Amino acid sequence: MTVPHLMIWRHGKTGREVLLTLDAAGDATGYNGHVDLGTGIRTALGQIVAEELDLPPARVRMVLGHTGATPDQGPTIASETIQFAAEPLRRAAAQARALLGQLAAARLSVAAEELRAQNGRFLAGSGAGLDYATLLENQQIDAELDPQAPVKAPADYRIVGRASPRVDIPAKAVGAWTYVHDVRVPGMLHGHVIRPPYAGRDSGDFIGRSLLEVDEGSVSGMPGFVAVVRKGDFLGVVAEREGQARAIAEALKVRWALPPELPDMQDIAGTLRAMPSTPRLLRDQGDLAAAKARAGVWRKRSYSWPWQMHGAIGPSCAVADWSDGRLRLWSGTQNPHVLQGDLAQLMGLDPQAVEIIRHEAAGCFGRNCTDDVCGDAALLSRAVGRPVRVQLTREQEHLWEPKGAAQLMDVEGGLSPEGDFDGYEFETRYPSNLAPNLALLLTGVIDPAPRPSDMGDRTAIPPYRIPNLRVVAHDMAPIVRASWFRGVSAMPNTFAHECFIDEMAEAAGEDPVAFRLRHIDDPRTAELIRRTAEEGGWEPHVGARLRHEGEIAYGQGFAYATYVHGKFPGVAAAQAAWLVEVGVNRRTGEVSLSKILVGQDSGLMINPDGVRHQIHGNVVQSISRTLGEQISFDAIAVADKDWGSYPLARFEDLPAIRTLLMERPEEPPLGVGESASVPSAAAIANAIFDATGVRMRSLPFTPEKVKAALAEAPMPAALPAPARPRRGGWRALLAGAGAALAGSLAMGVVAMPLRPEIPRTQPPAASSWSAETLERGRQVFALGDCAVCHTAEGGVPLAGGRPLETGFGTIHSTNLTPDPETGLGSWSYPAFARAMREGISRDGRHLYPAFPYTAFARITEPDMQALYAYIQSLDPVRSAPLPAERMTFPTNLRPGMALWNRIWHRAQEFTPDPTKSDEWNRGAYLVEGAGHCAACHSPRNFAGAEKAGDVHLSGAVIDGWYAPPLDGTGPAPLRWSEADFYDYLRGGSARHGAAAGPMAPVVAELRELPEADIRAMAHYLASLDRAPDRAEPEPAALAAEANAALETPTDAAGRLFDRACGACHITGPVSFATAARAPLVFSSAVHAPGPQSLVRAILAGVPAPGGGQQMPAFGPVMSDEAITEIAAYLRRTLAPGKPAWGNLAEAVQAARAAR
Amino acid sequence: MELKVNGRNVSLDLPGHVTLLEALRNDLQLNGPKYGCGYAECGACTVLVDGQAARACVMPLSAVAGREVTTLEGLGTRAAPHPVQRAFIEMEGAQCGYCLNGMIMTVAALLMQEPQPDRDRIRRALRHNLCRCGTHQEILAAAERAVVLMAENAPEARG
Ligand code: FES
Ligand code: FES
Questions:
Q1: Which listed ligand is nearest to B44 at the C-alpha?
Q2: CB-based contact (8 Å) between A11 and chain B?
Q3: How many C-beta neighbours within 10 Å does residue A886 have?
Q4: B135 falls within a domain
Q5: Concatenated DSSP letters of A1070-1091
Q6: A686: pLDDT confidence band, cut at 50, 70 and 90?
Q7: What pLDDT digit, counting tens, does each position of A751-802 carry?
Q8: How far is the CA of B93 from the centre of ligand 2 (A)?
Q9: I need a surface site. Which of A387, A464, A502, A754 has the fewest CB within 10 A?
Q10: Beta-carbon pairs below 8 A across chains A and B
Q11: Are B64 and B87 found together in one domain?
Q12: Is position B159 within any domain?
């Protein structure tokens, strides 16, 4: 860094605080303790400096929120930056310009007043000029801030008040911006935290004391492992790579105590009223009792607001570097100096030993996990002595971010006999606080006591003239972790005020806008209300107009608020008014917004474009919060873990937004970051009332809630009968009863001896086989999927030990490697061939038919020898002894298996059918022999033997998956053609979908087979079709109709599917390389007689043929209820002719338990 | 593992199960694609694979071997932004900008397939791209501007 030539500083909380510097080139750097939360503050502050300094904005750089470099100006909250935090900066810039002016005056020998400055240059009347760089040559000016330094009059502004392009977007648009997520430092490791089960809670005895046991040994051998770090309930792991850290964290065996239950989080009113609280009287004027006594109209109402998420799109991230007792932190914090103190406390350091370098993060609109993750990174870095980056997962961010608190507003009030708003009593309950840093709580550094907040009072005083008024805030501690969220408590408080006044207007028989205006004293406010109503096309009216067309009811709504923030009585930020038009679908309850105008008075606007964008952002976000957002909880914790369960508004939910910016250049600038959100919910509720006559008093206005409210209050005017949901023709094509295919499959490995033992021998040396033989053996080995069953999860390949569940008990696969003791290393070829063909182990014991010797018997002699050769050429691995088998009758008995074999098994090599082509015979050999397809795809009889004849390859349920028929009798709408079979076996997916479950490794193994063999298999399988000529629906039309149905969901389950699965499973205008390649309507899983395959695919995802997942496992983020809902929805939407699956919820639970 | 990223051949010594997103960000230092959810629900991680949009968070490396990946960085640079990037800069289609990568890449993928989409098609294309900052109006305006800029650029591109 070069030495500044001019510096303005002040004495601040942390000593000498630099506010502004100019370098040799005359370019300025401004320092501000507030940070840019994605609102464009960086640009606006730069404009202020540029204005006062008469520099082009491009020559001003801003440093924001770096503890070592910027002043401590408290947290960036409540839209205070422009209103307050910018002030010292503005003065510093003005002072710097004055100092430069003095230098110029001296150099040009004129009076300072005679100089004009422009674009970094002073000009004298004579035309002589000097630029800042020249003036600063050889200068070292160091001045303390003069807080009274004269600043420009707004009339002289040339930069402030004009649109100025955002300085950050050009870099962001090309990936050249460094967010905190993008910080990488040399030697950096990756950490991952494991959070306790009390997700999202931060008070109570159990906090910091619930971790019972950690088994480090369960992960210490995993790739990339560096450390497990534990302190109290703080638990994290460190690894070389990010993915490794996550895998280790997920595999770590941990035992936690379960926390006590939460109160009823659905019953916001009951729960908040029951919470201990301290009433705080905010206003008590007039005589409320007298007003009530004389009132013509008196109403009592309750309004409730749900818990909501800040929901930043980027989960929090931080990098910490601990060395020599100092901590450096790269952070996205909103509060650098508060965080500095917290981390100092956490680590037992002096705050000066903690340096916070602030980078931008994803817009979070209040407190999220950004500061928490800094504590995580700090603890992990100290434990390993290297820099550590911690990236929280989406799930962790959802569960643990301090929530926007629920709120309850109990209101009563009424009109004087003359119809004036005469009495109003308002009580508000807001269970929130500042959400102490999570690491401080988890490690037990601070006490997890309930900490009440006093932030429920924002905008609690109504903006209207009401002579008799009583306002009380009940201060209370949070129930779950909570903290400020855009609009803080003002948004719910205004929801109540503005809905209630709408009701008062109706009671007074007056137009709601006119009634408001009659109770407003401030002319500036009145003008905003009037102008917004005019511009927005307000239609004056009394009460609900109930206009409708068909099933859609239309209405207009209005609301207004001056956002009052900061400690009570607070300071006013910008004021905003909303005019909104809605359409309410009376059948479905869906509310759609057709028009929005937001009028806003922000005083002087530094950057009008920035103000407009802030309004748009507030509007979109508050619509989202009003119509759809509510956190759900289970008995002990927050339940929503992804964007499927917690919906955000999307493009199609949004109307065009118009803004009306009041021109007030002569007034001081007011914060604009939150104001436009504040009237939102009330405006929408009032519009719904105009449309339907129903008053919504509890957020969110979801279709389900609106529908229920409408049902309770039927529309007075007759409506046409609700239309039936359309049932398309394609659905009829899909109709057809699916017989339940049940099947139990006997599997097993080792029974008791019966046949003679074949003595151990030393197999021939690997070098005695030709490369050709080994290659052939490798292919047979792949075709037989040997590796799949003979490798335990996470175990050594081919060393066996995989448990196989069978209808008769659990057995384990054996070691296939040529280890002489535990594997096949002392097996002669005859012993091997006997096992393969007859199911008799070398020692003479019977093998259970889980080992598909019934199919392997068909393998030709040369192939069998090649297979033997290949196995003997593998590296030997010694395996642990297998657990004892516990089988049930009759398979646990020696004679049982012998008898079984005699009845069900014919050990015969494959014999070609001379009437068929070579390709067919080759295919049949591969499919029925080593490929052993029937082992899964044929039903089994009572004894666990594959059924033959008519039901050969006619489908079965195996291992909890549905193995569909291969004989053309499958339930899916499309036939399996030869080309389909080929695509599936070769590439892992066909028109019907991708290989999942047990088929995924099979297809992966088939990659080893030559092209001709795959073609032959496809040819043979296609020939099995029993009804090759049956009509099938036109695939494109079927897919399009199904897609249209999925794209326009009409119920909660459909919307859930759309949010969670739609990116890949609904086809839009953009084709996706990651999307599921086949439309779900073609998938056997949704048409199968049972839900097993579909449920398993949702829970476990779909693996990619070459490793990894092509569909992620949703088990970790979706509740059983959500999976049940989605499966039922897909069944009724995509297979409408087929019966609904019975016991779906139980099937989901069973499938999860089996994992 | 061999693949092509932003026109360069790269070879990665990583197991096939590693996500494309992790490899791009951590091994190739390409910060354009962002981690947002890991479940293909938000779009922040979008890249192009052989010219088609792809959510890199759910794409294992095994699925991109030998294929061509384009990230935000590969689309254009500060000095020479792609028309879609230029449109987003001009129309200020970002607040925090965390979703910006997904918006730009998805619009770019759309315009490659369909040069003249109307507003409704654009909305549908961006249906599964989330933005918490509520930048939707500016993003739509940027996408419409991109349609114009792409059309202006098209003759040059062909020539
Ligand atoms: S991070 Fe990939 S879609 Fe959200
Ligand atoms: S601009 Fe912040 S998430 Fe879209």
A1: 1
A2: no
A3: 10
A4: yes
A5: S-BSSS-SS-GGG-HHHHSSSS
A6: very high
A7: 334 577 888 888 887 777 888 888 999 999 988 888 888 888 767 778 888 8
A8: 9
A9: A754
A10: 274
A11: no
A12: no
- Across-strand partners of A547? A554
pTM, two decimals, is 0.87
CATH of the domain at B126: 1.10.150.120
Q: How do beta strands A225-231 and A234-239 pair?
A: antiparallel
Backbone angles phi, psi at A1131, to 5 degrees: -60, -50
Q: Which of B28, B55, B74 is the last residue of a domain?
A: B74
pLDDT at A76: 64
One domain for residues B87 and B139: yes
Please choose, from the candidates A397, A411, A400, A404, the residue with its C-alpha nearest in 3D space to the C-alpha of residue A455. Answer: A404
Q: B92 and A166 in contact by Cβ < 8 A? A: yes
Q: Are residues B90 and B130 in the same domain?
A: yes
The reply to whether A180-260+311-400 shares the fold of A6-171 is: yes
What was the pLDDT predicted at A340? 95
Cα A1118 to chain centroid, rounded: 11
* Ligand 2 pocket check for B96: Cβ under 6 Å: yes
How far, in Å, from the CA of A487 to the mean position of ligand 2? 18
Q: Which residues of B touch A1112 (CB under 8 A)?
A: 38-40, 58
Same domain, yes or no: B65 and B89: no
**Chain-chain contact of B133 with A393 (C-beta, under 8 angstroms):** no
CB atoms within 10 A of CB A924: 24
CATH number of A180-260+311-400: 3.30.365.10
Instruction: Decide if B50 is inside a domain.
Output: yes
Its domain, for residue B105, covers 83-154
Question: Which DSSP string do the residues of A274-295 spell out, in sequence order?
Answer: HS--EEEEEEEES-HHHHHHH-
A930, A783 contact by CB (below 8 A):
yes
For ligand 1, residues with CB inside 6 Å are: B 35-38, 40-45, 55, 57
The domain defined by A407-712 carries CATH number 3.50.50.60: no
Instruction: Tell me whether residue B117 is in a domain.
Output: yes
Nearest residue, CB atoms, B22 vs list A38, A242, A624: A242
Last residue of a domain, one of B42, B74, B106: B74
Question: pLDDT per residue over A1025-1041, tens digit each?
Answer: 887 777 888 989 999 99
At A445, phi and psi to the nearest 5? -70, -35
Q: What angle do CA A395, A399, A404 make, to 5 degrees?
A: 130
- Residue A425 identity: E
Strands (E), chain B: 2-5, 8-11, 46-49, 52-55, 68-70
* Residues A308-327: tens digit of each pLDDT: 999 999 999 999 999 999 99
Alpha carbon distances (Å) from A308 to A34, A431, A485, A624, A648: 25, 13, 9, 11, 11
Please say if the pLDDT value at position A77 is more than 80: no
Dig out the tokens for A849 from the structure: 């038919």
In order, the DSSP letters of A511-568 are -HHHHHHHT---HHHHHHHHHHHHHTT----SS---EEETTEEEEEEEEEEEEEESST
Measured CA to CA, the distance from residue A325 to residue A336 in angstroms comes to 20
Arch. (CATH architecture) of A6-171: 2-Layer Sandwich (3.30)
Same domain for B14 and B59, yes or no, is yes
pLDDT at A179 over 50: yes
Are B67 and B102 found together in one domain? no
Model pLDDT, residue A724: 32
CB of A30 closer than 8 Å to CB of A60:
yes
- Domain coordinates of chain A in residue numbers? 6-171, 180-260+311-400, 407-712, 736-992+995-1023, 1033-1154
For residues B50 and B90, membership in a common domain is answered with no
Atom of ligand 1 nearest to the CA of B102: 3
CA–CA distance, B61 with B24 (Å, rounded to integer): 10
Cβ of residue B95 lying under 6 Å from some atom of ligand 2: yes
Give the Cα separation of A665 and A922 in Å (integer).
Answer: 86
Q: How far is the CA of A311 from the centre of ligand 1 (A)?
A: 14
Note whether B64 and B100 are same-domain residues: no
